[in-house]
Amino acid sequence: MEQAAVEQSDVSVDVGKIVAPEVAALHARARRAERLATQQTVLVGMLAELLARRSLEGALDALAAAMKSCYDCDRVAIALDVGGELTLSVVSQQAVLAASSSEARLLVDAMSEACAEDSIVCWPPTSDGLGVLVAHRSLAGRRLSGSICSVPLYDKQERVGAFLLERRDQAQFPILALERLAVCVAPMLALHRRADRGWWTVFRQTLRTFLERNLGSERPGMRLVCLLATALLMGSLMVTTHWQIVAPAELLSHEQRLVTAPVAGFIADMQAAAGDQVKEGQLLARLDRRDIELEAASRDSDVVMAEAEFRAAMASYDRQSTAIARARLAQARARREGVQQQLNRMELISPIDGLVIASDATRTSGTSVSRGETLFEIAPSTDFEVHVLVDEADVYDVQAGQSGMLSLRAMPGERLPLVVESVYPVAEAEGGENRFRVRAHLVNPAAGLRPGQSGVVRLQGGRMSALGALTRRLNRRLAELWWRWVG
């Protein structure tokens, strides 16, 4: 029995020796987990403070107050990177601190020293690995007790800023917790800075990013293209050129002569057709004159009878009968003269030298015509005028005496000089657009021109920059839209 009791006591001692270290390890792990949870709670609370503030200034104030309370600090300073240099943004429990004051410079120098070391810097230093901390030593001054900790803030390898914690005792700061805080706070501050940017800052940064991305040192070809485009743009602004008004045009004869049927009848013979060149006095067509000839024969007999009556009245020496016979003879002769004139007009003669521009090709021998019906239209071959249809946006730039060039579709290689004579005061609607008809004459008409030919006219408008000439219509359209929408 005694031996069994001894063995049992030995086993309990061994079990106690084995269990005690495990329990201690469990207690240590529990304490570490509790400290980690506490740190995470503090970290989440600070992030919540940052997210709860809409402005950057409010977020910095909240962060400084939270760090001061959490880490039992006497002073917390936060500086942000502005143009590559740290600028003091907030100091806890201090509403105003001039950036040019010596105290502000000491704070900024201490945080800049931490950024230069690219690590958390504590004072008094715990080791000699950081070298001589001049800025921190100057900030600490002659105080025998006190501690300082400067933490740089980086987001995506870009410096956002730094913060500094200061105590009056020499208690050490939780370096690991501050590292985690810096990693989480830096992106938040960067987002707040982006949200607080003005439109001009956003534009400049966007433009800078675009230029760096597309015109960086890695893209020399794009740089060359942009350089050439800039040189071309500057050249277009400096070089002046003649701007021109371009408009469709039509070639018309200065005058047109109509040849009509003098009487109702039938065509006996057609001697000309559309497109024929004719001379003045040339026979164009003949009308059937048989009916007129019969009427002429009847009028001849009337004249013979009237002459006989007149001679008989004169032989009778009767004055009254002689006067009546003389009147009848004059009437008969007048009627005969009228019939003779109709006979003479049975032949249609060209009144001028020119070109037959209209004639009905279906009219042949035996075709009936009515009195006054147009049979031929004749236009001079050398006397032409140009009618230009100018858009209403350009009509105020067209004046009498203005010169230009005409290019006909039938003769695209030739340029015919012209001079503007007048501008019609009434617009013509064509294709949904208003155009004004401008009349011009050719300076040196070329041979072989025909009425009705169409082409394009370029009128000289003056001198302006090459870019202005290219964008003239666009500028007018933009000005019109501006007046319509803005006033």
What average pLDDT do the residues reach?
A: 81
Taken in chain order, the helices and strands follow as HHEEHEHEEHHHEEEEEHHEEEEEEEEEHH
Based on the coordinates given, report the CATH architecture of the largest domain: 2-Layer Sandwich
- How many domain units? 4
Terminal CA distance: 117 Å
Q: Biggest β-sheet: count, sense, barrel? A: 6 strands, antiparallel, barrel
**CATH topology label of the largest domain:** Beta-Lactamase
Q: Which radius of gyration do the C-alpha atoms yield?
A: 56 Å
What class would the helix/strand composition place it in?
Answer: alpha+beta
The number of helical segments is: 11
Structural summary, described in words:
The protein is of the alpha+beta class. It contains eleven helices and 19 strands. It has a six-stranded antiparallel barrel with strand order 6-15-18-17-16-19. The chain has a five-stranded antiparallel sheet with strand order 2-1-5-4-3, sandwiched between helices. A four-stranded antiparallel sheet has the order 7-14-12-9, with no helix packed on it. The chain is rod-shaped, with a radius of gyration of 56 Å.
Write the layout of secondary structure elements.
Layout: H1 2-52, H2 56-70, E1 75-82, E2 85-91, H3 102-117, E3 121-123, H4 134-140, E4 147-155, E5 158-167, H5 175-195, H6 199-214, H7 220-238, E6 240-253, E7 257-260, E8 265-270, E9 277-278, E10 283-287, H8 290-315, H9 319-344, E11 347-349, E12 354-359, E13 368-369, E14 374-379, E15 384-391, E16 403-408, E17 411-430, E18 433-442, E19 454-465, H10 466-470, H11 472-485
Antiparallel strand pairs: 1-2, 1-5, 3-4, 4-5, 6-15, 6-19, 7-14, 8-10, 8-13, 9-12, 10-11, 12-14, 15-18, 16-17, 16-19, 17-18
